[in-house]
Design brief:
Helix content: 25-40%
Structural class: alpha+beta
Distance between the termini: 40 Å
Strand content: 15-25%
Strand order of the largest sheet: 21-22-1-23
Number of domains: 2
CATH topology of the largest domain: UDP-n-acetylglucosamine1-carboxyvinyl-transferase, Chain
Oligomer: single chain
Number of helices: 15
CATH superfamily of the largest domain: Enolpyruvate transferase domain
């Protein structure tokens, strides 16, 4: 067993440079690293930024109208910056002030996306549906993003083709609108981005579109709420059956992006593993947080939720909650309302600092778990069973190490591990974390972490 695991691990290490795309960054955002001295308590008051996975499709939705779309609580993260730059190359005017962004596509001059910018952000594919639906065509190079497993586009193409959009099979993909007609769709997977892409095209199609097995994550619902404000007719928001009655045109709208529950879960973890308490202002809706609480409570983390805040107190001696019959408990991700895959990495760190054993089952991405080698190098007691499952036995004393961030969520997990480790850690390729977390070093430092950017 051990030999097989070592072979598996060595194979990954040998090939990671071959398969991992290292993003290109602006000259002002060159390769960065974080230096963390662990052992400091992270505690205080925290305000989450807008949901990254909600704001990116909302930015794409701006091309559905020639009227201004105003978004508030927009996080200042690298993925948003790239998406805004991509929109500007199309001719969309962008005004940004703090967390407020105003977009207007009245002066759109092209529907061909810049290849270099597309390579830097996964959300570039979200422009295919709205550009083709309203402007007749789109030329879309292959999207980039984190390398956490195969991220297929088949469901996007199935839905858009059913609505009357022809798509080439070669890169860059050419999307051309015929007669945009509503359709009754059953998705082969509850893909978040495919649901969003199809939804944005369907709002301008003639007649009714139904999307069954639609993704129903909170950020999909938040996008739908923006589209309704723009004049779309959508029912079933928040469920896996969406009904869209097409309209002739959309108009101006203002919308506040919902708080990022992935960021909330990450900061709760950072406080918990360092022995801190945390109060979160405007944490979001109770239903979304209850999904997170089911998993956090298995690792001894609890909170009190009021209308305006979430309060988590420091709990010493945390232990894992066994399953009925004293069996090893399991945290597994899946489509909403299952536990979100984007929090699996930080939850594994939480398990290393909780007494007991926990099985983690990553069902959505075949490469997300590979980062655990870094935690093992820091002293974590982890058995990697296969690409999708790891068993964590805690509590372990972690030690500082030199690491490199492979993707946004694994990078955040490493950063949290470094905060509770003994000694100094250096996290290279840190700009990857900036793609999903705004000013992460400054905000952690304000809560007590010893972290600097170099």
């Amino acid at each position: 067993m051990r030999g097989g695991l070592l072979l598996f691990s060595n194979h990954w290490k040998k090939n990671i440079k071959k398969f991992q795309w290292v993003e290109k960054v602006d000259s002002v955002c060159a390769m960065a690293k974080f230096i963390i001295n662990g052992g400091n308590t992270i505690a205080g008051t925290f305000s989450p930024r807008g949901n990254k996975n909600a704001v990116l499709p909302m930015l794409a939705a701006s091309v559905l109208t020639d009227q201004p779309v105003t978004l508030r609580n927009v996080p200042d993260i690298q993925d948003v910056r790239v998406m805004l730059e991509l929109l500007e190359t199309l001719g969309v005017s962008v005004e940004k002030s703090g967390g407020r962004v105003v977009l207007c596509a009245a002066g759109l001059k092209t529907t061909s996306l810049d290849e270099d910018l597309c390579r830097r952000v996964r959300a570039s594919i979200l422009l295919a549906g709205p550009l083709a639906a309203r402007h007749g065509s789109a030329s879309v190079p292959a999207p980039g993003g984190d390398v956490i497993g195969r991220r297929r586009l088949d469901t996007h193409f199935y839905g858009l083709r059913a609505l009357g959009i022809t798509i080439s099979d070669t890169v860059p993909y050419q999307f051309k609108r015929g007669a945009l007609q509503g359709a009754h769709l059953v998705l082969d997977e509850a893909s978040v981005t495919a649901t969003e892409n199809i939804l944005m095209a369907a709002v301008l199609a003639t007649g009714e579109t139904t999307i069954f097995n639609a993704a129903c994550e909170p950020h999909v619902g938040d996008l739908a709420n923006l589209l309704v404000k723009m004049g779309a007719e959508i029912s079933g928001i928040g469920t896996n059956l969406l009904r869209i009655r097409g309209v002739e045109r959309l108009g101006a709208a203002e919308h506040t992006v919902a708080p990022d529950y992935i960021e909330t879960g990450s900061f709760l973890t950072a406080a918990a593993v360092t022995g801190g308490s945390l109060e979160i202002n405007a944490p979001g809706d109770a239903l979304t947080l209850s999904v997170l609480e089911k998993a956090f409570s298995k690792l001894g983390v609890h909170w009190i939720l009021s209308q305006d805040s979430l309060k988590m107190k420091n709990e010493t001696g945390r232990t894992t909650l066994p399953d009925l019959g004293n069996f090893t408990p399991k945290i597994e991700d899946g489509i909403w309302p299952a536990f979100p895959s984007d929090l699996m990495s930080v939850m594994i760190v939480l398990a290393t600092q909780t007494q007991g054993q926990m099985l983690f089952f990553e069902k959505l991405f075949e490469s997300r778990m590979y980062f655990v080698d870094n935690l093992m190098a820091m002293g974590a007691n982890i058995i990697q069973c296969d690409p999708h499952r790891v068993v964590v036995s805690g509590k372990s004393q972690l030690h500082g190490a030199r690491l490199s961030s492979p993707d946004i969520r694994a990078g955040m997990a490493m950063l949290i591990a470094a905060c509770c480790a003994d000694g100094e850690s250096i996290i290279e390729n840190a700009q990857v974390i900036d793609r999903g977390y705004e000013a992460i070093d400054e905000r952690l430092r304000a809560l007590g972490a010893d972290i600097v950017r170099a």
